[in-house]
Automatic annotation (TrEMBL):
The keyword Oxidoreductase applies. InterPro entries: FAD/NAD-bd_sf (IPR036188), FAD/NAD-binding_dom (IPR023753), FAD/NAD-linked_Rdtase_dimer_sf (IPR016156), Glutaredoxin (IPR002109), GSHR/TRXR-like (IPR046952), Pyr_nucl-diS_OxRdtase_dimer (IPR004099), Pyr_OxRdtase_I_AS (IPR012999), Thioredoxin-like_sf (IPR036249). Residues 486-598 form the Pyridine nucleotide-disulphide oxidoreductase dimerisation domain. This is thioredoxin-disulfide reductase (NADPH). One of its GO terms (cellular component) is cytoplasm. Gene3D superfamilies: 3.30.390.30, FAD/NAD(P)-binding domain (3.50.50.60), Glutaredoxin (3.40.30.10). The gene is 20210578. The keyword Oxidoreductase applies. NCBIfam families: TGR. Its cofactor is FAD. One of its GO terms (biological process) is cell redox homeostasis. It comes from Helobdella robusta (Californian leech). Keywords: Disulfide bond, FAD, Flavoprotein, NADP, Oxidoreductase, Redox-active center, Selenocysteine.
Amino acid sequence: MPPVGDTKDNKSIILEYVNSSKVVIFGKESCPYCRKAKRMFTDLNIEYNYVNLTELTKGEELFTTLKEMYGQNTVPQILISGQLVGGFDSVEKLHSEGHLLPMIAGEIGLGVEVPDGDYDYDLIVIGGGSGGISAAKEAVSCGKKVVCFDFVKPTPLGTTWGLGGTCVNVGCIPKKLMHQAALLGHSIKDATSFGWDIGNCQSATHKWEKMVANIQDYVKSLNFNFRAQFIKKGVKYENAYASFVGPHRVKYVNRRSEEKEMTARYFILATGCRPKYMDIPGCEYCITSDDLFSLPHSPGKTLVVGASYVALECAGFLKSLGLDVTIMVRSILLRGFDQQMADLIGKYMEDVCDIKFLRGFIPTKIEKVKDAEPGKPGTYRVTGLNSKDNGDEIQVDDEYNTILLAIGRVPCTADLNLNAVGVNFDKKSGYIKCNERECTSTPYIFAVGDIVDGRPELTPVAIRAGKLLARRLFAGEMTLCDYINVPTTVFTPLEYGCIGLSEETAIETYGSHDVEVFHSNFVPLEWQVPHHDFQCYAKLVCVKSLKKRVVGLHIAGPNAGEITQGWTVAMKMFATKDDFDSSIGIHPTCAEVFTTMAVTKDSGDSAEAEGC
Ligand code: FAD
Ligand code: NDP
């Protein structure tokens, strides 16, 4: 923020602020529209300078000058490249009509001019996962000479995998397939209610080894396919670990420890994250999601440590495959998600799936009781602690065959030698700060995917960001990646899909007086005959002052992933509650609940869905 000195006249002070950033928001403390504007630019990952007039000694005087200079009497006053765009409504309209991001991109262009030079490649991509592959393929299709480095460091257990990154090998793909295996188990049981005679379904058993072998065969076919695509398109693939040695130059080391160097004009970092481990005695006996999907034997009785996406999804399918599963939860479930929905997901796992929860506990020690044998896991004793309000500690200890740590992920940036090229990154967390153009603090080095600070860590986000970045770098396009209303689904036994804001964040942003929540319980038709009476739930979080714009969509129910994807288009087009109401449902589906919601939370009326 520029210094505000008494010697400067007010106009000069304003102009200093205006020139301090591409986007400048002049606002006041109590103004809800200022909060909305800040939220919007934050969600879009667009850097802005917020000038809080209430905090400045000469704030009122400056406001008067602002009014004279730009002719607008209200706050926020939002300026892009020195021009007043208007208040929140104007900027909002620009975004909803698809003009805001191109306007910002057009103003800044590529933002850097990197001189052409005598480089080996136009682009070096480090990391062959979702983001890296997408960027590399797009860049060659723009006629550029591109190399992609991908190297997987083995887990402490020695697990490793092929080209494609987390999603394909140890993330979305094997996870969703194991979720499917779990759902099929439930369907077998339901089938008898629909007249199928499948013998004694209670004795249907699951063969872990067979599931893993078939899923791994599929994963290997994807690895092969990525390599084939690289060859076909002309991306040079190097199965080697790359790190910077100086400006525009990396060294890379392959499996045989052979070291070479290479130069490029541009770099895209897409090295992804790896699971965290804990600093407790016996941590070496734990596995992570990097090992689970190719584990050669059934995990047996399992303790899952952690309570977010990875933990709940893995615990969910392991239990449904017939294992004894306990989840050790440090604080809350699904931090960052709508907590009413998170609690419902937990309730289903606890009450319907019979998964045990150790709430408020952290593991403190793990001891080996029995060695693993070929085809069988070992046995380990886990001690955990829970600090009660009165300060006393409650200790638990129990024996498990597998301890799965799902306590978050660390960006793979520490070994890239980023200091050699001046790329700023958070030394503690490892995340790289990028601007809205995915550019790091070094103008010729960009980053996409999970390693970028503040971006949703999801495959389609990494793919989109990588593709758009390559097109901006090499095809003269301007489109920025829009990080607002990114949909996601947690594939727990009862799936949870959402788009936009949680109820809590909506209230924080718009104020409780301006937020109206429509909601409905429902029992899917398919559940009625086998008598599953758990109440699924959906809600729409709306903002009254924005013509009841839907800013948050949430559903906990079967196929939530498929349902949520469809409604994403409506949310991207800033649909209002009226738009949802005027859409005709497809009967009898779960998704139709969003077309018939009439009960608001505030009314206190029953949210039971009416029959057809
Ligand atoms: P990655 O896909 O992780 O790829 C990075 C690659 O770079 C890796 O192969 C790595 O080994 C390599 N690498 C690292 N450093 C170097 C180096 N110095 N030199 C060479 N190579 C290097 N997202 C969803 O959208 N839906 C889901 O259902 C979903 N499920 C998930 C389930 C699990 C269990 C996990 C862990 C994640 C899941 N995700 C899901 C998240 C998704 O997998 C990631 O967001 C996505 O893979 C990120 O892509 P990326 O390109 O940033 O990195
Ligand atoms: P998160 O960082 O989201 O969650 C970490 C969890 O571990 C939290 O519950 C946290 O608890 C807990 N935790 C952290 N440290 C400790 C500790 N020392 N002891 C006990 N518990 C601890 O990580 P995830 O690995 O679950 O997910 C990473 C990302 O991967 C997600 O953000 C998501 O983007 C992506 N992903 C997407 C999926 C999908 O799309 N379906 C599926 C899986 C992953 P606390 O709340 O107390 O901090």
